[in-house]
# Entry
Amino acid sequence: MTPKEFLDLYREAFSEKVPIPIAFGYGGTPACENNNVPRCIIGTIRKVADGMPLTLHRENVRCGGGKLYTMFAPMPESVPSFVSETERYKASGEMVVEYVRDLGISLAEKPYLNFMPLTLLKTWDGIEGILFFATPDMLSGLAAWAFYDNNSNDAVVTRFASGCAGIVTFAIKENREKGRSCFIAGFDPSARPLIPQNELTFTIPMSRFMEMTGTMRESALFRNAFSVVRKRIAGEITGR
# Structure
């Protein structure tokens, strides 16, 4: 299934009113030139869902945690104390160190991390994950699709993460391990103001996505129950 074929099927399932899915992966050439990426990259990633490509690299990712979770640099010494003492997201710096160690992050071997809206993507070459910015109604469909052929308890998971870790780190690690988990994220209070109020993120590693494209038409997305949800997504019905 080509990116265009998937996008057509996705819009058939969820309506034309949903944000554009985003493909991301590392490469040797940039997808575009970006000179003014804000310190927190989450809002800029969200703009890709409106059709604007994004290229991140070591120089334009200025947040220390962002550099870590996009795999452009090791964890800065300041991160454990900042996360535990300033943000209060973990009870101690030691817990932060343990958490990052267990992620098993390896530095990127290629200089660019490209995010492309599927409207501009020609092939899946070099793609490591597919990202959706999704409302609760959209998450209902995405999760139902992920559960369709996977009985594992980790078919869809949520873990502690910064906004960028929840999008990039988990999916890339899962893809490289040929895993089948999908990830709901976007709960990071620091990133929430940069994401629309009614959205979270849902990321599918490419290793799982290629399986799921084969089950999409047979799943609940094209059955009666979700058709009612789709109408609400499309604005054809309102209310509860």
About this structure: Strands lie at 22-27, 54-56, 112-117, 129-134, 156-157, 182-185, 200-205.
